[in-house]
Amino acid sequence: MRAVRTVLGDLAPDRLGVCDAHDHLFLRIPALAGQELDDPAAAEGELAAFGALGGAAVAQWTPFGIGRRAAGLPALSRATGVHLVAATGLHQAAHYPPELLERLHKDGLADFFVAELTRGMLDGDDPDGPRGTARAGMIKVAGMFHGLDGHALRVLAAAAEAHHATGAPIGVHHEMGTAAVDVLGVLHGEWGVPADSILLGHLNRFPDPGVHRELAASGAFLAFDGPSRAHHATDWRTVECLVALAAAGHTGQLLLGGDTTTAGARALTGGGPGMPYLLRTLRPRLERELGGEAAEAVFVTNPARALSARWRDDP
After folding, report:
1. Is the peptide bond before 194 cis (omega within 30 degrees of 0)?
2. Span 78-135, pLDDT tens digits
3. Which among 55, 145, 295, 313 could bridge 175 via Cys, Cβ 3.0 to 4.6 Å?
4. How far from 80 is each of 69, 182, 207, CA to CA, in Å?
5. 217 vs 207: CA distance, rounded Å
6. Contact at 8 Å (CB) between 158 and 109?
7. Shortest CA distance to 170 belongs to which of 189, 194, 154, 151?
8. What is the H or E stretch that residue 11 is in?
9. The whole model's pTM is what?
């Protein structure tokens, strides 16, 4: 039986509800120094605002080692009533000290991911630190700009191994929306991860209809996230891409997320648009363009399928 693995336990997919399929409550990377997401009160306020608009679930794609605050996620979920799916995995090498990456690879990266998915996530960013009881519900990996470096290839291989051991879905950061075909070729083509266990992120940043159709033909989920950022494709291109993919028969593979990565992008404590924007602005636009049934698929049915798995026991 399929289930969504939340920080409070496994959940039947039909109980997930309206979902922000890719976002961040906590995040700390060198490239965004001074704009860290590290305020629990601000995270709770953002979640509560999302919940007040009908939001019921958020997938936090922050992986290990970049300030995900795994220990605090269960309390946030209880306080707001919003289901949280957390991530294990690794981002690009530039976000980590080299000695940490060397240690993780030496100790066995796939085993590390499996432990976080089945036994519980580490409470902090220290691989020798305490482990909490909240389990990760997905694996987060990352490509590079128009390609894959050695670190990305090693992480993709470990993620594939962990998927085969547990059934966990894999979410992919694509730098500026690029290299999605390369990533799919490695995860699905080379390592045999089923396409419907792969969530390809940031495709709104590279609005190429031909590439989108090629990716959709594989059966993978296509995530359009981070709306209303001036340095990315604008919302009208995002909606245009979603409409084109729906017309091509791929409504059942589309996901939307806010991808809030800086404190200034929060709705309540920054300049926005934040998590509420998805439901306040984008959902009505999708309903006008595609109809209520399609909008329900993008916000409810599709995330439930994409984030659920037939979980296997700890090997």
Report:
1. no
2. 999 999 999 999 999 999 999 999 999 999 999 999 999 999 999 999 999 999 999 9
3. 145
4. 17, 38, 34
5. 16
6. yes
7. 194
8. strand 9-11
9. 0.96
Cβ atoms within 10 Å, residue 315: 10
Instruction: Give the number of other CB atoms < 10 A from CB of residue 102.
Output: 11
> What is the CA angle 68-95-308, rounded to 5?
45
Find out if CATH 3.20.20.100 is the number for domain 3-309: no
* Residue 311 near residue 167, CB atoms below 8 Å: yes
- CB contact burial 229-262 (16+ within 10 A = b; e otherwise): eeebbebeebbebbeebbeeebbbbbbbbbbbbe
Task: Give the residue ranges of the annotated binding site.
Answer: 22, 24, 140, 173, 202, 259
Share of the chain above pLDDT 70, in %: 98
Do 185 and 146 form a contact (C-beta atoms < 8 A)? no
Show binding-site residues for Zn(2+): 22, 24, 140, 173, 202, 259
